[in-house]
Amino acid sequence: MKLVLLGINHKTAPVEVRERLAIPASRLADATRTLAHQPGVREGMILSTCNRVELVTAQEGDDSVSADLLTFLHQYFALPPSLVEPHLYEYREREAVRHLFRVASSLDSMVVGEPQILGQVKAAYTAAREVGAVQHELEGLLQRTFAVAKKVRHETQIGATSVSIASVAVELAQKIFGSLQGKTVLLVGAGKMSELSARHLMQQGVAQVLVANRTYERAVEMATHFGGRAVPFENIYTHAAAADIVITSTGSPEPIFRAEHGRQFLQARKNRPMFFIDIAVPRDVAPEMNKLEGIFLYDIDDLQSVAATNMAERSKEAQAAENIVLREVDRFQLRMQSLDAVQTVVALQQSAEQMRAAEMLRVRSKLAGLTEEQNAAVEALTRGLMKKFLHAPLSAVKQAAQEGDTEALRTLRKGFHLEDEGRGE
Description:
- The chain has 425 residues and is α/β, with parallel strands linked by helices.
- It has 3 domains: 2-161, 2-Layer Sandwich (Beta Polymerase, domain 2); 165-311, NAD(P)-binding Rossmann-like Domain (Rossmann fold, 3-Layer(aba) Sandwich); 340-423, no CATH class.
- It is built from 16 helices and 10 strands.
- α10 (216-225) links the parallel β6 and β7 (229-232).
- α14 (315-362) packs parallel to α16 (406-415).
- The longest helix is centred in the last third of the chain and has 48 residues, at 315-362.
- It starts with a strand and ends in a 10-residue tail after the last helix.
- The relative contact order is 0.09.
């Protein structure tokens, strides 16, 4: 079995590519099930957030596995290879473990230290487990991943001043206006991102928060919690004109705000400027809105510059966290190598004993005249021979485990036809 991780993120792909691969929560189970049924894939999990889509897989020991993952991406999303492949990265074995540990610890996030990513990894794990796509191979890896992320959070200050994408959006609004005092904000979408945005906005003294959501009851709930006002989703275009800032984060597959809406807003506002912060993937605001004079649009990639400032402030804590991750990768690799060695030793001993017992059974009729004492001597002789025969390969297994030589372990299992048995399957 090989661990292979294939993906794209905010560092390798622009939002217009990421939004084409984004998987809504309602489709995550189906996508994960489809991934797990790809040729060569034994177990799989899909992590899909606004900043990344990653396939984490345990696969057969065949170097052609990457092609299977690419086929999945092309077929499931109906995208041409030329659109996706230039933005992909691939990690295997140790590097895949390190990458997953870094992602869950928020070291690979746009805003280093943000707390949401661990919950998103856990949600991806839960979805994969429910459809049977995560079993013992990925189970052990993911449980260790959660433990490492918790260790990083507890042993460093990386999260002490952490900010989410939502808070970065609010910080950007502050830079635009200088102050948010007296401003009106419309939140479109009442999910976690909008809730976080509202919390930060209230702290900055906005005059009014309007909340629109497809489920009106949810909008009322959030608006009440923050002392704002809920508006029916079908009336957002009417209310948007009254907002100085629109922060939108919905799961809509198509843009909600287009250029014609922007022109209407500007006319109603008598050309007073208006700012859109689009933190949705796929995007809620059509890019051409940014061409209208008086409307300023920032999508999730535009938040990168603000996040870079936070990176500089947290570099020391991030380095401490990176050191923890590296140590934990080493520990995980040693544990897996030891487990491989133990499983291989047991499988080799069992295989040898089965061969010895079969041979004894085959010649049993020829030994019918032996006394009980003589039978015991033959048993002892055959066991002794097998023990001596196994001494060299068992020593090689233990040495390979101590030296971290996974290729030698794999060769030994293959040479003794233990590929399945040596993995406990």
